[in-house]
Amino acid sequence: MSTSQHNERVALVTGAASGIGRQVALQLALQEGARVYVADRDAAGAADAADAICQAGGRAQAVVVDLAEIANLPDALRAMTNTYGPPDIVVNNAGIARTIPAADYPVDHWNTTMAVNVTAPMLLIQHALPHMRKKGWGRIVNIASISGVRAGTGRLAYGTSKAALIALTRQFAIEVAESGVTVNAIAPGPIDTPMVRSVSGNGHQSSYADMIPMRRFGTPEDIAEAVLFLASARSDYITGHTLAVDGGFLASGVLVRNLFEPAPALAA
Questions:
Q1: Does the residue 162 lie in any domain?
Q2: In what order do the strands lie in the sheet with 242-245?
Q3: Could you tell me which residues come within 8 angstroms of residue 54 by beta carbon, excluding any fewer than 6 positions away?
Q4: DSSP 8-state secondary structure symbol assigned to residue 118
Q5: What is the CATH number of the domain that holds 237?
């Protein structure tokens, strides 16, 4: 286990039972030495992730919390930090998505998506800020999406919520910058996680990969490395920024494969 810069710090990672969140929690604990809250609504998954970290020599505590239950969230956060201590690092990773045509999008799922993807991160940041300001140091990393920058078919609620999360990142960043707290976002491209597979379907992965200059899906490790950077002292002068970790997807614009290859000769 690392005894590096975060050895005396506490990190809270939401949606940490699987996928990106689990990898972020693992690397914060094992590479950076942080004590990590593994927060998720999936009690068994959170416990499994925390146990795996502890067995590998890290420090982790599973916390069961449903971010969709907005009315109960402030009390749940107070109870959690009264027991385990307030977080120095917050990674708002949890998110939900469904692919539904915009004209047919149901308002109940719209409201749930906004609660989990936007309102809950706001409440988590508000909860952590007094402690961070008192210490004069804090790191907040919001996991947004390229869907918050460019529209995608079927992503009305998800894309809108992630655009809002990017705006929320900038708003908090400018208001807390003088206190030693940085607030940044990461916009993952297509990442090979259970949620992405459920939304895109395995049959569509090759078509998605064709739109990515690196021609592959990203991995949870790709995102975790970016989180570790934004949570580190190396990023002291970076705040209010959204970092795309997407294999070049947002930069590509109109990407035409084989554009510069000679055209096939016409038959005589």
A1: yes
A2: 59-64, 35-40, 10-14, 89-92, 138-143, 181-188, 242-245
A3: 60
A4: I
A5: 3.40.50.720
Q: Is 158 a catalytic residue?
A: yes
Q: Which domain holds residue 54?
A: 10-252
Classify residue 28: in a domain, yes or no.
yes
- 88 contacts 139 by C-beta, under 8 angstroms: yes
**Helix axes of 19-30 and 43-55: crossing angle, nearest 10 degrees:** 30
Residue 268 lies in a domain: no
d(CA 128, CA 114) in angstroms, rounded, equals 20
pLDDT at position 1 is 43
Q: For a pLDDT cut of 90, what percent of the chain falls above it? A: 76
Task: Tell me the C-alpha distance between 140 and 121, whole Å.
Answer: 10
Residue 2 lies in a domain: no
Number of domains in the chain: 1
- State pTM to two decimals: 0.90
> CA angle at residue 133 from 131 to 134, to 5 degrees?
65
- Burial degree of 165 (CB within 10 A; 0-12, 13-18, 19+): buried
The catalytic residue among 37, 158, 208, 237 is 158
